[in-house]
Specification:
- The protein is of the alpha+beta class.
- The chain contains twelve helices and 14 strands.
- The strands form two sheets. Strands 1-2-3-4-5-14-6 form a seven-stranded mixed β-sheet, with helices on both faces. A seven-stranded mixed β-sheet has the order 8-9-10-11-12-7-13.
- Helix 2 runs antiparallel to helix 7 and helix 5 crosses helix 9.
- The radius of gyration is 21 Å and the shape is globular.
Length: 349
């Protein structure tokens, strides 16, 4: 007579360096997981910003059943938070097992209380805690890619195609060279024009080091001059342009339009099946730009469990209280803004 094998109890653990491979294998196969659930973000957040992290996973019978990446930001200016995940589009619990999901959720809430944070934040596509306060200011944009380059071009609305052809007519060229200096100058110039602090070079260098071939830099050139540049992630057949920008020449030559088309074209030739345009705030030029490409906005729901805070935080540049700061920041010389910016933006999340 065979003795029945009893299933082991579900347990919650915190990720260490030795477990990155198992974690990423789970994330790659989990429908609810995104690029922003990858274990490498633990390294990025700790190494580039010095933020404490708790990447939790629920395990049963030696198998990971759900994951929850968390990071803490403690700032005198912007408050004290525990989030899944700062600087990322998405986060929150990923996994099919409802018992495992609940165990991680409870562990995160207990950790938030222990740390004495102002709030706990989950970044989801769909409601997980309808009773929690939520922010609906962001939407994301994604659509499938055709296997044929020309079909992807024809799927772009006519007016937007005209802008792409303007860039082509201007003899713009694209190159994947992973040159951080070229990218950083283009990106920092763009961010400064918007009046917001820029990330430091160290952050982007860390992204390159941690994610390797899944983190790519592409620049657009007019002759020998860099017009604009973009940093993109690759995950499960999708390309995700995440940080991009350019200067006056990009606007004059339709450089950004050309750049995103070139990224789409290259992704198609690489065998990618989806183009994820990332998130944008409602009511912004970036939001309208992506809609002009024929993408439909897909709302994001950021949920907050308030601990010491009495209201959902709003550190967005659209907040009226930051208008004076933005105006003053634009007036700073670019070199000064690039020195000061990383010390501020690391606390925004």
């Amino acid at each position: 007579m065979n003795t029945p094998v009893r299933a082991s109890a579900l347990s919650v653990h915190t990720l260490d360096a030795a477990g990155h491979g198992r974690w990423d294998a789970f994330v790659a196969a989990c429908p609810q997981a995104s690029f922003f659930h990858r274990a490498g973000w633990q390294t990025v957040l700790e190494r580039a910003f010095g933020h404490p992290t708790w990447f939790m996973y629920a395990q049963q019978d030696g198998r990971i059943e759900a994951v929850l990446p968390l990071a803490e930001i403690k700032s005198r200016l912007f408050g004290h938070s525990l989030s899944a995940l700062p600087f990322c589009v998405q986060g929150g619990v990923a996994g099919d097992n409802p018992v495992a999901r609940a165990a991680l959720d409870q562990a995160a809430q207990a950790l938030a209380a222990k740390l004495g944070v102002d709030h706990l934040e989950y970044r989801h596509r769909e409601a997980q805690h309808p009773d929690w306060p939520a922010s609906l200011r962001y939407a994301t944009f994604r659509k499938p890619l055709s296997a044929e380059v020309e079909q992807n071009l024809l799927a772009i609305p006519r007016k937007q195609r005209a802008m792409i052809r303007k860039g082509i007519s201007a003899s713009l060229t694209s190159v994947v060279d992973n040159d951080l200096d070229r990218f950083y100058h283009a990106y920092a110039s763009s961010v400064h024009r918007l009046g917001t602090p820029v990330f430091g070079r160290r952050y982007f260098a860390t992204l390159q080091q941690v994610f390797g071939d899944d983190c790519e830099l592409m620049s657009v050139r007019h002759g020998h001059n860099t017009v604009c540049a973009v940093l993109s992630f690759y995950f499960r057949g999708d390309v995700l342009p995440y940080y991009g920008g350019g200067g006056d020449a990009a606007r004059r030559l339709a450089g950004n339009d050309f750049m995103y088309w070139e990224l789409m074209r290259r992704a198609c030739e690489r065998g990618c099946t989806g183009f994820d345009f990332g998130r944008s705030k409602l009511g912004t030029g970036s939001f309208d730009f992506k809609k002009n490409w024929g993408f439909e906005a897909q709302p994001l729901r950021y949920e907050y469990q308030l601990h010491r805070a009495v209201a959902v935080p709003d550190n967005s540049p659209l907040n009226p209280k930051f208008r004076l700061f933005i105006r003053l920041w634009r007036a700073l010389p670019l070199a000064v803004a690039n020195r000061l910016g990383p010390h501020i933006v690391r606390n925004l999340g």
